[in-house]
Each structure stands twice: as structure tokens, then as C-alpha cells.
Amino acid sequence: MPRQIVDPRPPIPAPYRSDERVAIQEMARDFAMNKVLPVANELDPEHGMIPDSLRKEMGELGFFGITIPERYDGLGLGVFEYALITEELARAWMSVASIIARSALAAGLDPGQRERYYPLAARGEWLGSFAMSEPDAGSDIASIRTRADKVDGGWVLNGQKMWCTFADQSNAILVVARITPYDPDKRHSGIRRFIVHKEPGEFPEGCSGNPIRKIGYHGWNTFDLSFNDCFVPDDGLIGHERQQAGEERDEKAGFLAAARGMTTPRIHTAARSIGLARGALEDSIAYVQEREQFGRPIGDFQVTRFKIAKMAAEIESCRALMYQVAANADLGGYGNSTSPDMEGAMVKYLASEMAERVTSEALQIHGGAGYTTDFPIERYWRDARLTKIFEGTSEIMLRLVSDCLLPPTPLR
């Protein structure tokens, strides 16, 4: 008699549950398991690209426009629904759960540009990439050295960028650079953001890229970029960071814009982490009921059962915090946090650390089979390791939380 495969997802808790959210979750899970997972299992081992046909279906379902207002053809939903959908997609393939964030670049454009690009972004027809990190500037944004020199009619960018995923296929690259001249004694001065429009499949003139050889996060390419006299017209400088005539320049405007607003991306990463861990858990539950040793399914052995129980408990604890932080974000508040960054940093830290532990335990449960590409466990494991690095490392998350709880003493 076939053993029952238990779905370990508890229902959305009552304070957050609605018929609409339950329907959204089920729709996303059905798409993830029936459309995304087979593609991931086929393409990830050979480093294949996310198919355009899959992206088109995602656009038709509204996955690129979850938080985009309805007047721009988006769904007009909140961060909570964004997290629900992300978790389901990441359970199948984290790269697909990640690409839905590429439409968010349109939110940083000027009002006139948003009118043009928001509807396209909501349908997945205009997606962006983000170029901030550099060889000597990762978590330390203030160390950025890419220059933006003013010329007639615009700016010229020169410098190196790293870890720019989707740079080749995107419709635009958001580049964080330093305008010249700036005050070298003020580390945060002169940092600004520029939007570089381009055609998908090409790099803009004055920009070239080399793909990075990654151990995971397949389905799309991540690039080192070189900017060599790359021209950006005046309106390519993000509007609210431009100095208006007669207005005193805020030297930290660009730095603060690049550093703030990270709560939603970190909730997104927490949801991706939870999805990866849940995929590892679900696959492990199925595997331990089928794999036999010493004449019994290995799921009958207490050591295995306790591993499964601990994995499920860790996932659910992180999911509960994610729901809380997402709900607070939608209400415009952050509970008892002293900073909007604090809860986002907490949930990102806990979920990403949990995902690495759970996926590693799942690989152990699968034994030698887990160390092959015949099972998706190794994919969850590889991708989970990345969640502790992007959108701020675990160490930076702890720095943010500790700075909220214990503000550093000013140097004397």
C-alpha cells in the first residue's frame, strides 16, 4: 500500500488568512509544482536558462505585478502576498522566485517614466538588473569607485561592477556610481543612481560583461560589468537625487536611497529561503517513506523522524516571523522595532541560516543520492547557501539588528 505523502505546510494563520490569500497561495503552488519544477529539474543541472515561455506565463498570472498598482495593470497587492507567491515559486526553483523582483526597478523611476514602464513591468515585458557591488565595495556601499562625470546632455560612467544578475537580458541596468567632483573626506558623498536603458540580449554602448562561473543560482547569468565612457542622458539620473536649481545638495541622498528600502527585498529573501527549505523537507518526507534499509523504511527510525520534526519546526518558526514582518510592512509599521530595517534584517538572517541547515540535513537524509543531480536536493542546498550572502550577508544583518538594540558609542 503506498505511503501517504504529507504536505507539511500549515494553513495561513487565522489573523492573516483570507479566501483571496488562500486562492493566491494555491494558484502559485500549482504553477510552481506543475510548470516550474519540471523545468528546473531539467535545466538546472545543465545550467540552462529560464525559458521565455515560462516568463510569459508568469506575466499572464500577474507574478511580475504583485505590488504594482492596479491602474498600471498590476495586482495591487501587498508584501504579504508577494511573500506567499515567492515561497511557492522558490520551493520549485529559486531563480524563478527571484526573477519576479526584476519588475520592481520601475518603482525607482521618475513619475513620467513610471507611467510608461509600470504597465510593461507588471506584465514582465520590462525587467531590470541592479549594478551596485564592485571588486572593493560589497557590503560597504560607501567604497563605490565607479565614476559619473558630467558632460553636455548627460553623464559618462566609468568603472567596474560585480554580481549583476540578468544584466544581459534586462531592459535596463540601475547603476550606483559616484558623481565627480565629490568630497573625499566624506565617504558617503556623491553617490547617485543612474538608469541605463538597453535592449534585452545586448549591453548598452560603452558597457561589456563577462559571465561569472557560479555554483548555483542557475537559470540566468550573473556578470562582471565594465563601464567605459558609457553615456547616460540627463534624465538617466534618478529624479529625486538630482540637485534642483537653487537647492542645497544632500550629499548623502544617493547613499541613503541605495541603502534604505531593503525591508521588502529581505522579506523576499526570507520567503525564498523558506521555499527552498520546504522543498527539501517535502522531498525528504517522500524519500524516507520509500527508501528501505534493514528491512524497514528509513522513516521508521527515530533518528530520521526527529530530523524531519526539527526541520519542520525550524521552517514554521521562520515562516511565522515572515508573516508578521510582511503584515507589518503592509500596515506601514514594524511592531516594536526601533528601525524599519530591524525586523527585515531579523527575518532574513534567521530564514537564510535555517535554509542552509535544513537543506544540508535533507541531503544527509538522502545519503549518496542527495549528492547527485538526479535529485533536486543538491539544488536547494546550493541555492540556500547564497541566501546568506545576497541582500546583505548574515554578518551585516546582525550588525543592523545590534545597532538598533545597542547604538554604537560615537568615537571621541
Number of helices: 11
What does the largest sheet look like?
Answer: 7 strands, mixed
The CATH homologous superfamily of the largest domain is named Butyryl-CoA Dehydrogenase, subunit A, domain 3
- The unreliable regions are 244-248
Mean pLDDT: 90
Q: Which fold does the CATH topology of the largest domain refer to?
A: Butyryl-CoA Dehydrogenase, subunit A, domain 3
**Strand tally, please?**
9
Radius of gyration from the alpha-carbon trace, in angstroms: 22 Å
Give helix % range.
40-55%
Strand content: 5-15%
Q: Outline, from the CA principal axes?
A: globular
The level-1 CATH class of the largest domain: Mainly Alpha
Helix and strand succession?
HHHHHEEEEEEEHHEEHHHH
Number of domains: 3
First-last Cα distance:
73 Å
- Structural class based on helices, strands and sheet pairing: alpha+beta
Examine the secondary-structure arrangement and name the CATH architecture of the largest domain. Up-down Bundle
